Amino acid sequence: MKIVFMGTPDFAIPSLKAVYHSNHQLIGVVTTPDKERGRGQKVTFTPVKKFAVEHNIPVYQPEKLKDNSEFIEQLKNLQPDLFVVVAFRILPKEIFEIPKYGSFNLHASLLPKYRGAAPIQWALINGETETGLTTFRLAEQVDTGNIYLQLKVQIHPEDNFGTLHDRLSELGAEVVIKTIDLIESGNYQLLPQDDSLASPAPKITKEICMIEWNKPAEEIHNLVRGLSPYPAAFFIHNKKVIKVYRTEIVKDMHLKLSEFHQTKKELIVGCGKDAIKILEIQLEGKKRMSTEEFLRGYSFIKGSDEK
Question: Buried-most residue among 57, 126, 158, 171 (CB within 10 A)?
């Protein structure tokens, strides 16, 4: 099948590699425009473009997707059989209906659960023990299309956003290839999503990342997992932002709300229920480090936590 792949970040790379190395024909890659980043305003490519350039695959980088007749014409001229979409922008109907077999998206949840921009983070933040991957035929409403395939994936207690993201990214490549082969065979039945079971996974904002010590330790622990290593949960102490990357729940310690218990090696904070031991931490402007290393040069006892 003649395939155009659409994606942007690292999450899309295993799927793109899998399509490239498959027996299907990868005729083009669509990704977001180059950006100027850093102090020198150096122009950087998306990970997807980097792979495409290295492998001599034609790259398309439209500034906008809606009402872009030139881009639509370019896509039609390719005469694609299928668009494969992994971590890209929202496609308008006039684009996703171009290919002979339409377009499908790989989503990092068991739809209809966790529709939206941040399904991996929210599954962890909500303390789920299972998530998964879904391929679905694109429809006008985001993440609502009929389902081709689903794969259940266990969430381990030690997982954070980084580890779960990487695992789902690798497994996603297998689901993408199985979906392409399924569509080519014509031997499949699309499964409609049950909207009554839908839950949201909105974009992560700075407000979501703020630790509120009045919440139970388990909730704070899961927030840290869901936001580590990026963008990271944080609290404010002496007007400085302190990011937290790894924690443990402490059940047998009775501390007042937001009270700090500090030894040479340990930092434990009182929560709405139980307490949290902070294991990895980063002070604004400094590098990430173990709590033991951090406490050699910082004390929480004199100051108090500010909201």
Answer: 57
Could you tell me the residue range of the domain that residue 295 belongs to?
206-306
**Within this chain, do residues 33 and 170 fall inside the same structural domain, yes or no?**
yes
- Based on the domain organization, do 256 and 190 belong to the same domain? no
Burial of 103 (0-12, 13-18, 19+ CB in 10 A): buried
Kindly state whether residues 128 and 11 are assigned to the same domain: yes
The reply, when asked if residue 111 is annotated as ligand binding, is yes
In angstroms, the CA 124 to CA 159 distance is: 8
pLDDT, tens digit, for every residue of 73-114?
Answer: 999 999 999 999 999 999 999 999 999 999 999 999 999 999
Same domain assignment for residues 186 and 213: no
Residues 220 and 111 in one domain: no
Sign of the dihedral defined by the CA atoms of residues 147, 29, 92, 205, in that order: positive
Please count the CA atoms within 13 angstroms of the CA of 283 that sit on its side-chain side: 14
**Contact status, residue 26 vs residue 104, Cβ threshold 8 Å:** no
110 appears as a binding residue in the annotation: yes
Q: Are 258 and 213 in contact (CB under 8 A)?
A: yes
- Give the model confidence (pLDDT) of 260-303 as tens digits: 999 999 999 999 999 999 999 999 999 999 999 999 999 998 64
Q: Is pTM beyond 0.70 here?
A: yes
* 157 is an annotated ligand-binding site residue: no
Among candidate residues 197, 219, 253, the one where a domain is terminated: 197
